[in-house]
TrEMBL record:
Alphabetized Pfam families for the sequence: CN_hydrolase (PF00795)
Top-level taxon of origin: Bacteria
Organism annotation: Campylobacter vulpis
Keyword entries, A-Z: Hydrolase
Boundaries of every CN hydrolase domain copy: 4-250
PANTHER family noted in UniProt: DEAMINATED GLUTATHIONE AMIDASE, NITRILASE-RELATED
Keyword Methyltransferase carried by entry: no
Residue intervals passing through the bilayer: none
Name used for this protein in its record: Carbon-nitrogen hydrolase family protein
Amino acid sequence: MSKVKLASVQFSPASFEREANMEKAVFWTKKALEEGARIVVLPELFDSGYCVEDKDLKLGLDLNDIKSSTLAPLIELTKIYNAYIIANSIEKSKNKLYDTAYILSKKGVLGKYRKIYLYDNEKKRFNRGKKYPIFELKFEKFKVKIGLGICYEIGFSDGARFLALQGAQILIYPAAFGVARAYVWDLASRARALESGCFVVAANRCGKEFSKVKDSYIEFAGKTKIISPKGEIIQELGEYEGISCVELELDDVKAQRENLTYLKDLNLKLCQKMYKNLKA
C-alpha cells in the first residue's frame, strides 16, 4: 500500500504584491505541511498575481536563482518538512517569458513545465512550452510519478492522456480559473481524472484582480478540488482561502486502470494517423 498526503493551497494573490503574496503562501504551505502533507500545491502565478501584464518582465522569475525571494523560503520549507512544493510563476529565461509550473525539493528546483496551451491574452504575454515531462517524486518506500498542466489546459484531453501514457499517477493543474467559466473547471477536472485513471489536483486561486487589458475586475472561482481516478471529488474547497489536504492511495490508480481500460485500449496508431492528417 503506497499512500501519500497531498495538500492544495487556495488563496487570493494580489497584483504586483510579491512580498505580501509570499507571506500568505508560506503561511498556508506551512499549515499544510504541519498537517502532514508531503506534497503541497500552490495556484497559478501565486507570487506575482495574475493581472500584471505591464510588469511581466520585471516580475519574471529566474528559476536558477534559488536564493530569490520566491524560491528561497519555499525551498527552506521542503528541507524542514522533507516534502515537495509545486508552484507556478512567471518564468524569465534569456528575456523570454513563460507561464511555468515547477517542483521544489530540498535540493532546489527538481524540474519545470512551461504552459503549452495559452489562454486569451496569455498568447501575447508568454512563449509556449514544447514538452510534457514526467517528474518522479521519491519517498521512503515508493516513488510517485507526477504530470503537470496549467489552468486552461485542464480542458485539453490530449495533454492529460499523454502524461498518463507515460506513467503519471497524479495530474496537477495550478490555476487562476475565473468564475465566468467555473462550469468548465468542474466538468473538465473530473473528465481528465476518469479518462486517464489518475488522481487530479485542480489547484485554483480565489479572490479578484483588476485587469487593465479588460478594464474590469476578474473574479476567480476557487473551488479547488482533489479528484479520484474514478472521477469522484474526494474533497473540494469553496470560494475562500484555505487548504485541501487528502491522503491518496496510489494503488487506486492501477486498480481503476484495470477496471476501466481506456489507456490500454487506446489505438495510438490511429490517433497518430488522424492527427497527422489534420490541417493546422
